[in-house]
Amino acid sequence: MVLSNIRKFIFHDLRSVEGYIDPPDALVFLSLLDCQRQHNLSGGIAEIGIYFGRSYFLLKKIAGPDEDVLGIDLFDIGNLSHGISDQYRLFLEHGNRLGLPVDEEMLLVGDSTTLAAQEITDKIGAVRFFSVDGGHSLTTLTNDSHLARDTIADHGVIVFDDTFNPAWPEVTVGVADFLRDNDDAFSTFCMTKYKTYVCRREFHDFYRAAIEQAPDLGAFDLAETHFLGCDAVRVHNPFSRRLLYELMTRSGMGAISERAYRCH
Ligand SMILES: C[S@@+](CC[C@H](N)C(=O)[O-])C[C@H]1O[C@@H](n2cnc3c(N)ncnc32)[C@H](O)[C@@H]1O
């Protein structure tokens, strides 16, 4: 993995895919996956909730061609043509355009609430990085958090999207329920504006330190926070930088927008 290529991908290519991950979380994904690689913490990578593939292609780019990334989605957005939805067709097209062709064997198309954990591990083994970004109702979040819990490796990380977003209040309830119900085993080590990062308790300090020491996160303010009995690092992206980044990308300076997120 050449880190400068991945930064380039984050700041140049990711915005070309409709979707929801922004540079701060993309850099947290990169930092955690790179830390796992450096420490030989192997395992599969999975995401529930692909949409058009913005975070899926980031995971694929970081993983490289030799690692599988399993994608799970209903893939039912838009019109159907020859049994294929607009969403599915566009997702495959993005993969080809970005030079990250989708291996359709690595997709589970359908409702995640009907999946068994073994269907995931049969495809990719124990999971080292699981992004939960599918249905945002409490029922689905409960199901998906259990799928992640039951499939991750001992050193696995679970990322919950849209926590504390008032548009999706049941996500926050579901994550809090999960952490309380599994409080003996899991803890939160990092929080961003949009996502909550969880691992097994034995790895809490390891992943916390990975965030604190990550070269790619040097541009952010790291603050201390507490969530349901865990101390976690909050990765804060100041308004001034968000504004600078948006101005650069919207005024055709996307190619140099990466500079807004460099550590000075
Ligand atoms: C917020 S979007 C995912 C965003 C994506 N991760 C990105 O980076 O842009 C949520 C996705 O979850 C999918 N979804 C919703 N409910 C689902 C379910 N029960 N099972 C599988 N996928 C589901 C939707 O089809 C949609 O594509």
From TrEMBL:
SUPFAM superfamilies named among the record's database cross-references: S-adenosyl-L-methionine-dependent methyltransferases
Keywords recorded for this protein, A-Z: Methyltransferase, Transferase
Molecular functions (GO terms): methyltransferase activity
One protein family per Pfam: Methyltransf_24
Annotated signal sequence range: none
GO biological process, one term: methylation
Ranges in a coiled coil: none
Domain of life: Bacteria
Protein name, as recorded: Class I SAM-dependent methyltransferase
